[in-house]
Automatic annotation (TrEMBL):
Biased composition (Basic and acidic residues): 34-82
Domain CzcB-like C-terminal circularly permuted SH3-like: 347-406
NCBIfam families: RND_mfp (TIGR01730)
Disordered, as annotated region: 34-84
Similarity comment: Belongs to the membrane fusion protein (MFP) (TC 8.A.1) family.
Xref: Pfam families: BSH_CusB (PF25919), CzcB_C (PF25975)
Leader peptide range in chain numbering: 1-25
InterPro entries: BSH_CusB, CzcB_C, MFP_Cation_Efflux, RND_pump_MFP
Taxonomic lineage of the native organism: Bacteria, Pseudomonadati, Pseudomonadota, Gammaproteobacteria, Lysobacterales
Keyword set, alphabetical order: Signal, Transport
Protein name: Efflux RND transporter periplasmic adaptor subunit
Length: 418
């Protein structure tokens, strides 16, 4: 009984042990599964998080790259905007292209049209007159004759001239006689024969005779230096061409009567009639745009007389051509002069103002070349244009050949558009 009971106890213990082992294994398996499942979930979350982080980084990098590209584009756009309207040229290129750099002038002016004609210069014309009354014995020249300075024009015979010549000869003879007396008295005084006061008196008479002789000779010379017969040869004081001849052989002329006109056709000038107020405003050096039979040219004012009563109250403006030869003397001309203004208006050469995209611009000098500066243009007078707005007056701008900068600017914009 005891043995049997022990066996039962043993079997029961084994069953209990087996049951306990099975439960433990189940419990252990469940815990391990849950742990594995939790570990797998953690790994999955970590992977998802890593993937999300990489995606976020990629998105951030993409955004940064896009921002960099946008910023670079803005910089290029800004640079392009800064370069718009500029023409880069070196100093050597500017000189080679013939573009002149000028300053902006101050002071506006009024434009006045003048009428005038070509006349011989003052020192290149002569109105030759007879210096004494007499009879014209011979006329040597005719209108159009080329003469040299000192060449004879006509011969006049005058009794008055003969008397002048005789008086001059007599005065010279008296002066010579008085001089001989003075020398003789000098010798006698040294010998003690003549008193010193006699020597002083003879010296005074000699000086007076010399003075009278000089006066008589000068009078005869002013009359044309007549010969003993009273013939006077009238000569030309300048070289040139004989104009009008006012005497004929056998005619009688009075003192001061005109014999002939002589002028040098190579020495001419422009003479314009102008109101006295305008002549007071036009200074020597001012330019006049002239139109004549031979075309248009520029002249420079050399003188202006504001009070010329002989011209019927009109003033006279004299000018000479800057280059070339003027039309023949007597040719009519017309001119346009710009009088100096009293205001502070700015003006630039007409060539400096160019039209770009419908706007008036001037090209201002920069460190690298030129920049197109929009301006408001005003009046145009005498080859210059008033600038009402857009410049301060301190700029230096492109003058002549500024159209080359306009063409270069248009070329650069066309290449940028493509």
């Amino acid at each position: 009984m005891t043995f049997k009971n022990n066996r039962l106890v043993l079997v029961a213990a084994i069953l209990i042990a087996l049951a306990a082992g099975f439960g433990l294994a189940r419990v252990t398996g469940d815990d391990a599964g849950e742990a594995a499942h939790a570990e797998h979930a953690e790994d999955k979350d970590a992977a998802d998080a890593h993937a999300g982080e990489e995606g976020h980084n990629e998105e951030s990098e993409g955004a940064d790259a896009h921002a960099d590209e946008g910023g670079h584009g803005e910089e290029e756009g800004k640079k392009g905007a800064e370069e718009e309207g500029t023409v880069a040229l070196t100093k050597e290129q500017i000189e080679a292209s013939g573009i002149t750099v000028v300053a902006v002038s101050r002071g506006g002016g009024g434009e006045t049209r003048l009428s005038g004609r070509v006349e011989p210069s003052i020192g290149a014309r002569a109105a030759v007159a007879s210096s004494i009354a007499g009879r014209v014995e011979r006329v040597i020249v005719a209108p159009g004759t080329q003469v040299r300075a000192g060449q004879p024009l006509a011969v006049v015979v005058s009794g008055e001239a003969a008397t002048m010549r005789a008086n001059a000869d007599a005065a010279r003879a008296e002066a010579e006689a008085a001089r001989l007396v003075f020398r003789r008295d000098q010798s006698l005084v040294s010998q003690g024969v003549v008193a010193r006061q006699e020597l002083e008196a003879s010296r005074a008479r000699s000086l007076a005779a010399d003075a009278l002789a000089r006066a008589a000779v000068a009078q005869a010379s002013a009359a044309g230096t007549p010969d003993a017969s009273g013939r006077i040869t009238i000569t030309s004081p300048v070289a040139g061409v004989v104009g009008a001849v006012q005497v004929t052989p056998g005619s009688v002329v009075s003192a001061g009567a005109l014999v002939a006109n002589v002028s040098d056709p190579k020495q001419t000038e422009l003479v314009f009639s102008a109101p006295p107020a305008l002549a007071a405003q036009v200074a020597p050096g001012a330019r006049i745009e002239v139109s004549g039979p031979a075309g248009n040219f520029t002249a420079v004012v050399i003188g202006a007389a504001a009070d010329v009563r002989e011209q019927g109250g009109m003033a006279v403006i004299r000018a000479r051509a800057e280059s070339g030869t003027l039309p023949p003397a007597g040719s009519p001309v017309a001119g346009v002069v710009v009088s100096a203004g009293q205001g502070r208006a700015l003006s630039v050469p007409a060539d400096a103002v160019q039209t770009v995209e419908g706007r008036s611009v001037v090209f201002v000098v920069t460190d690298t070349g030129f920049r197109a500066m929009p301006v408001l243009a005003g009046r145009r007078a005498g080859g210059r244009i008033e600038v009402l707005n857009g410049l301060t007056g301190s700029e230096r701008i492109a003058g002549s050949n500024a159209f080359l900068l306009k063409a270069e600017l248009a070329k650069g914009e066309a290449e940028h558009g493509h």
